[in-house]
Amino acid sequence: MSNSNNHKMEQLLSAYREHLMLYKTELEAIWQADHSDAKWVQDIMGIAHKLNGSGKAYGFVELSQLARELEQACEAAQNLTQKKIISGLSSPLYALLNALERDSVAKNAGASPNHNSANTLQTNDICDAVDILLVDDDPNFSKSLSEVLSQYGYRVHCQDDINQLDQAIADHEPVALIVDMDFSGKRFAGANQVSIWRQKNGAPLPVFFVSGYDSFDLRLASVRAGGTHYLRKPLDIPKLVSLLNSELNLAPSEPYRVMLVDDDYDLLSLYGAFLTNAGYNVTSATSAQDALRLLEHSHPELILIDVYMPGCSGIELGKIIRQHEEFATIPLLFMSAAADTDMQLACARLANDEFINKPIELWRLLMVVKSRVKRGRYLRSHLGTSTIAETQTVHDPLTALPMLASMRRDIEEALQHRASDNLMAVVKIDIRDFHTINNLHGHYFGDEILQRIAWELTQHINQSDTLYRESGDEFLLLTTGHKSQILVEQYINDTVNSIENTKITSKHGIMALSADIGVAFATKDISSAGELLDNADIAVFKAKKSTTPEICYFDDTLKTVQKKRFFLEHAIKKGLATDQFVTVYQPIYTVNENKLVGFEALARWQHPEKGLLCPGEFIPLMEERGLIPLLTHQMLTQSLSQFAAWHRQHPYLFLSLNLTAKDIQKPIFLKHLASLLAQYQLNPERIVLEITESLLLFDWQHARYLLRQLSDLGVRLALDDFGTGYSSLSYLQRIDAAKLKIDRSFIYQWSQTGDARLLQTMVQLGKTMNMSVIAEGVEKREELSFLRQLGCDQYQGFLAAKPMFAEEIEKTQWN
Ligand code: C2E
Ligand code: CA
Ligand code: CA
């Protein structure tokens, strides 16, 4: 840390010591005042709460602990008599007063036994030093590794005794640790000692564990000790170097912008100064009003908000921020007390937002902030919405794998040098359901999975092959030097197995992963990287279409399919331009009285040669080619104008329309919908939009925005095809849909097997959530009467009516 930074920290510390004195005076005054007003316990509790948080952050561990004890005593005292309160609070209060007295006086540096500010206030100024500490009891290994690393510009300090870890870190101030796991046969010694050091001090140094052994337990120990990577001996040096580089060279071209909101001025200034020292651009606010005022100008990439603030709580502030369209996607991170699970749930519900438990040590603050802003920028730059010009990264910061750009270069090179008797292929690996895993378990967990996959794959691939991260959950493998196609296939099967054998443990249990694979060989006619990558894309696209994970090899028939798709796309575009897409309406009835209650609008394509086509023939391609918004637009125009006419006669009817993923990502239909509602003076409550819950889960960030807009418009939401996706109950609660449409496969299943359990559960679930339950695909009388028994509200199906053109509806439905 530079001198000026040191000075700033010292100033903060001495200001804090002065505040401790003030807190002491304030506590004494409250304690001695006459206690006619019951508020005094609250006041003491408030101060104790603050001291608990700021004490730990400033490194006064014992003081913070005593404050916590007093806070708990206040909580316990709340319903007691005055006398009992006083006797209950007296001892923790005096203990805290003593600590305040002691800690408010500055001691000679380092003399205070309970204050390790020198350690906690240390920032990781990683940019200007490349010292590395290597702890290993094998002198030969240490010697050769330090020699190699020195060629890459690292200065390696060697230590052979793991018990000297703390001292060695203090002596050399390394920016990263490489630690052997095994010391004289104690296989976990490295991880154990690193854990001890982290608990005591825990500067956010990356730790690379190395070991001659590999087992689940060792890896778990590494993870628990905060290990960044786990590498097997003999070391793969280029990999180690690339990991080190990507771990240490993360200084972004532009400082990350962070906003802090906390009413505790001591904490705010400490966190602010600390993050500023670490190179962040920090805006601080002591109140919600302040925060909102500053937001306009500071454009933060992350906002940290204290949950407890007088006037407007952190959660409320979060909601206000979310109401502003331009701030709706800024990640929020709430700081709250560990015990407060309700509050934490509220944070989680507010957004996919996260929380960290107070008190927050500085190193933890830095790690938490760094990982989030880094991820945010990375995602933004990949979604193409980044406003920050960032230099192109060659290595992916998350997995340390090289990225697509380097792959193109490598392929071009390999193509030039390919030998005719060696096969070369590009393998595209796409993790199944990754988006959903991400949304269900959070990005943190998702990141971990990607790292694990990257790790497992690199362990399994041939030395001469390279793995790349393309984007999100897509990896690419360039493999060369195979003698026959069969051998390549075997190799790819093994690689896939390595993913499928990876078991991820989450708090919801053990999860298995699977992947879709597309393989493209560099056949003679391939002359560019682009062609080869396109072919791998086509192959993986086919694999993804299958309901089970698949390995798909590119061949020319796929290209024919591709050609067909090209012509189809062309025809669809023409159809959209010449009004070939029309609407049919399927009536929906009540289960009990068979009364018409509404319609679902369904698209048809009046194809000039092939006749009337169903959505299965055009929607998937439209979705893929980004044409859905045009269809949605036409469906809205046609069906709302028609419905307006019906609605005047039958105001109780509703109209349902279908949306797809693209409509969620870019809800440009909203404006159109609003103007049609106004134009026809329709009651918005009569308009229902159908979305599948899988789509909502797939892209919850966008979905959340859409849901809010829909509810502002006053239109209703139906969960379509219910039961076929994840049916996560917690999401169901967040989505707040008015209707639940049970997928027709469940009716069919009951019909075939007589097993009613799923059907019954879903109807009940919908009822419990106060949703109106609609059964789809009712074809038989028995099905309808069974639905009646179950208490299902409405149904649609061929039994009553198929989808029809408007004229047929008018002829058949109300005469
Ligand atoms: P969906 O939303 O589940 O629509 C219900 C589908 O079930 C319709 O198929 C309907 O004709 C069919 N169906 C209704 N009753 C029965 C029955 O008793 N038995 C059987 N076997 N089928 C029945 P359709 O019209 O072919 O639509 C298929 C899918 O295409 C729809 O599934 C929906 O996801 C999508 N789709 C249709 N129109 C649109 C649209 O305008 N926009 C969007 N984005 N998607 C649409
Ligand atoms: Ca539907
Ligand atoms: Ca449906």
Looking at CATH, the homologous superfamily of the largest domain is EAL domain
* Approximate helicity band: 40-55%
Largest sheet: 8 strands, mixed, barrel
Enter the CATH topology name of the largest domain.
Answer: TIM Barrel
Sequence stretches where pLDDT stays below 50 over 5 or more residues:
108-129, 383-393
The total count of helices amounts to 32
Rg: 31 Å
How many domains, as an integer? 5
The CATH architecture of the largest domain would be Alpha-Beta Barrel
In a nutshell, what does this entry contain?
Helix content is 51%, strand content 18%. It has 815 residues and is α/β, with parallel strands linked by helices.
Main features:
globular; 5 domains; Four Helix Bundle (Hemerythrin (Met), subunit A); binds calcium ion; 26 strands; alpha/beta; Rossmann fold; 815 residues; binds ligand C2E; 32 helices; single chain
Give a verbal description of the structure.
The chain folds into 5 domains: 3-113, Four Helix Bundle (Hemerythrin (Met), subunit A) (Up-down Bundle), CATH 1.20.120; 130-248, Rossmann fold, CATH 3.40.50; 257-392, Response regulator (Rossmann fold); 404-554, Alpha-Beta Plaits; 569-811, TIM Barrel. With 815 residues, the chain is α/β, with parallel strands linked by helices. The strands form 5 sheets. It has an 8-stranded mixed barrel, surrounded by 4 helices. It has a 5-stranded parallel β-sheet with strand order 2-1-3-4-5, sandwiched between helices. A hairpin with a 2-residue loop joins strand 12 (466-471) and strand 13 (474-482). It is globular. The longest helix is centred in the first third of the chain and has 30 residues, at 3-32. It has 32 helices and 26 strands. 51% of the residues lie in helices and 18% in strands. It binds ligand C2E and calcium ion (CA) (2 copies). One calcium ion (CA) binds at residues 600, 658, 690, 720.
